[in-house]
């Protein structure tokens, strides 16, 4: 079987993990009711805490994390593949992990991925971000299997590093992911272009759930969760408000795109 229905959950996370968790679970249920077999949520699904000290205090380890337990139970109850774009997870180090989880329909964690690239930037809207001060960067790329396709895991700022997605595609990924909390400023400039480029250059579907709206201390995220086909067509766009988007994924479209432009097979080694 090469067809399935994908959904992206779009929401506005607050500072309290347990409060946002309720909203996230309600939207995941809506996605399931709409026929989705695979549901993806944004980066930092249940909490966006701007204060570094508070973030680290709230970053619970996996075994004690209420959201991990809740999402595991929900995936099992609904019988879906549930991709939590990321949660803030405590580690034994002084920094937390920005970690994605893929739950199978039995509620088991099928895959984990820690965000590799840290968003350490100052942007012209006056906001400054230093993710590396709070989060420990990951070191391993992750590709895993769904029943219908092979999935590559990434998070937000990773999307600006095409070599990661190329490596995943070379490893067999047919669907690339980039759940995000993209800033409104950078999202308006680059979000659609980056995701369409990652789809086109690799001949893969791209699925990217996004945070939206205004968060604590005035941080604004762009929304516009996207599902993009391998030829670059946008199959679904979440706009700027919380909600759920759907797209029917047909893997034959990937073959068609790669048959027309098989650039995935044309990589060459070169030197300077």
From TrEMBL:
Q: Which domain of life is it from?
A: Bacteria
Q: Which GO terms describe its molecular function?
A: hydrolase activity
InterPro entries, alphabetized: C-N_Hydrolase (IPR003010), C-N_Hydrolase_sf (IPR036526), Nit1/2_C-N_Hydrolase (IPR045254), UPF0012_CS (IPR001110)
Q: CN hydrolase domain location, by residue?
A: 4-251
A Pfam family cross-referenced in the UniProt record is CN_hydrolase
Q: Which UniProt keywords apply?
A: Hydrolase
PANTHER family, A to Z? DEAMINATED GLUTATHIONE AMIDASE, NITRILASE-RELATED
Family indicated by similarity: Belongs to the carbon-nitrogen hydrolase superfamily. NIT1/NIT2 family.
Its recorded name reads Carbon-nitrogen hydrolase family protein
Source organism per entry reads: Kiloniella antarctica
């Amino acid at each position: 079987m090469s067809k399935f229905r994908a959904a992206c959950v779009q929401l506005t996370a607050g500072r309290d993990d347990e409060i946002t968790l309720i909203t996230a679970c309600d939207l995941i249920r809506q996605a399931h009711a709409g026929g989705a077999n695979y549901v993806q949520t944004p980066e930092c699904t249940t909490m966006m805490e701007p204060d570094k000290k508070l973030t680290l205090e709230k970053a619970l380890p996996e075994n004690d994390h209420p959201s991990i337990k809740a999402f595991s139970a929900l995936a099992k109850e609904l019988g879906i593949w549930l991709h939590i774009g990321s949660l803030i997870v405590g580690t034994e180090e002084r920094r937390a992990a920005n970690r994605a989880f893929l739950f199978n329909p039995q509620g088991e964690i099928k895959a984990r991925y820690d965000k590799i690239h840290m968003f350490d930037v100052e942007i012209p809207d006056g906001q400054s971000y230093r993710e590396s001060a709070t989060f420990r960067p990951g070191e391993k790329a992750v590709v895993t299997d769904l029943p219908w396709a092979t999935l590559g895991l990434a998070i937000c700022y990773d999307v600006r590093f095409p070599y990661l997605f190329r490596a995943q595609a070379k490893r067999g990924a047919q669907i690339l992911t980039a759940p995000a909390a993209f800033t409104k400023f950078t999202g308006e400039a680059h979000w659609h272009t980056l995701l369409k480029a990652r789809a086109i250059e690799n001949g893969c579907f791209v699925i990217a759930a996004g945070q939206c709206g205004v968060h604590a201390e005035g941080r604004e995220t762009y929304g516009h969760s996207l599902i993009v086909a391998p030829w670059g067509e946008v199959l679904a766009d979440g706009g700027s408000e919380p909600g759920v988007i759907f797209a029917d994924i047909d893997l034959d479209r990937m073959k068609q795109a790669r048959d027309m432009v098989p650039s995935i097979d044309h990589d060459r080694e070169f030197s300077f």
